[in-house]
Design brief:
Elements: E1 4-10, E2 20-26, E3 36-45, H1 48-54, E4 71-79, E5 94-98, E6 107-111, E7 115-117, H2 124-128, H3 131-144, E8 155-157, H4 163-175, E9 181-185, H5 188-196, E10 202-205, H6 211-218, E11 224-229, H7 233-242, E12 243-251, H8 267-271, E13 275-278, H9 286-299, H10 301-305, E14 313-318, H11 322-330, E15 337-341
Parallel strand pairs: 8-9, 8-11, 9-10, 11-12, 12-13, 14-15
Antiparallel strand pairs: 1-2, 3-4, 3-6, 3-15, 4-5, 5-7
Helix pairs in contact: 3-4, 3-9, 6-7
Length: about 350
């Protein structure tokens, strides 16, 4: 096997989408690390963190390679010794999985703890857009948001047509069919998508509506039990306004910026006993990510296979069009995943 491979690189180390290009870099090797597999990548999914990393604004975990990309699908080429607590793979197995980085390349070395067999009912393109999205949604619902399906808690998903929110709305619909599910988006088309395609109770256009007042009106003034937020500072005060007593606000992104304008009233944090917690998945260790993988395999894969849950892929592009793919994500015009394929 050749010692080099093709991978997406960034001219100058960081830069705009136009700095992306395909270059030859050293192929990763398994070395002596246990529980590792070398995978020939067939497809990889794009995520917001890729844009931030490309621009030099994302703090990489120490074990992450410089090459972009955390989710992929492909075919196993080699495997190192696997311990008895880890699922075993062999050359030729079709898989998909999550990594700390390196998916924008012909080959990736991944932990067997984070690999999963590719269901025959799903394509390589679909599987490449699953791990980061669905794991993040599961993490937000169960491990951070402590969502109670038994209580039919209400939930609000910001950026409702983003991939994580698309997954999350489907998960809640399955967990608690009677629960109220709300979403915000920045166009009527995306709001209609959340209601008509995903089954949200209501969705509000954050560009034209006072979504906080709309949420309070829809809940009879009670507010929502759980809020999943990707926007950050611009929504902070309104999140406090619409959070119910003992509500949880899960902060997963800062698309609108991290700095508050000043003058925000934090009184509701105390008076309504609100808990605010931020989280990222990429910085978590393999055991934590592995627990999410097990939850995903138990609760989600059967529903994806039988079509009750859907992987919404907005566009599939050959990786030679990686510049176009990043520019499309930057446009905020998509509903669902952008996936690139490698021939």
């Amino acid at each position: 096997m050749a010692k080099t491979m093709r991978a997406v690189d960034i001219e100058g180390g960081t830069g705009p989408a136009t700095a992306l290009h395909i270059a030859s870099i050293p192929r990763p090797s398994l070395e002596d690390a246990p529980n590792r597999a070398l995978v020939r990548v067939k497809a990889f999914g794009l995520n917001r963190m890729d844009l931030l990393q490309r621009e030099g604004h994302y703090p990489l975990p120490p074990q992450a390679p410089l090459t972009l990309g955390v989710e992929f699908s492909g075919v196993v080429q080699q495997v190192t010794n696997v311990d008895e607590d880890t699922e075993t793979f062999k050359p030729g197995d079709e898989v998909f999985g999550l990594a700390y980085g390196g998916a924008y390349a012909e080959y990736i070395v991944a932990s067997c703890k984070m690999l999963m067999p590719k269901p025959k009912e799903l394509s390589f393109q679909q599987c490449a857009g699953i791990p980061e999205v669905w794991f993040t949604a599961l993490q937000a619902i169960h491990l951070v948001g402590h969502y109670s399906a038994v209580s039919n808690e209400s939930i609000l998903w910001h950026a409702g047509a983003s991939s994580v929110s698309i997954a999350g709305q489907q998960l809640i619909k399955a967990l608690a069919p009677k629960a109220s599910i709300f979403a915000t988006a920045r166009s009527d088309e995306k709001c209609d998508f959340c209601v008509e395609e995903l089954g949200a109770t209501a969705a509000f256009n954050a560009s034209t509506d006072d979504w906080a007042d709309k949420v309070l009106e829809a809940t009879g003034g009670k507010g929502v039990d759980v809020i999943i937020d990707f926007v950050g500072a611009p929504y902070f005060a309104q999140n406090l306004k619409v959070a119910a007593r003992d509500g949880r606000i899960v902060c997963l992104g800062m698309m609108g910026g991290p700095v508050l304008k000043g003058g925000e009233n934090i009184g509701p944090l105390v008076f309504k006993r609100i808990r605010v917690q931020g989280s990222t998945l990429r910085s978590r260790d393999e055991n934590y990510q592995g627990s999410l993988k097990q939850l995903f395999e138990k609760e989600v894969i059967p529903l994806l296979v039988d079509g009750k849950h859907t992987v919404h892929v907005e566009k599939v592009l050959p990786w030679e069009k990686i510049v176009e793919a990043h520019q499309l994500m930057e446009s905020n015009a998509t509903k669902g995943k952008i996936v690139c394929t490698i021939d």
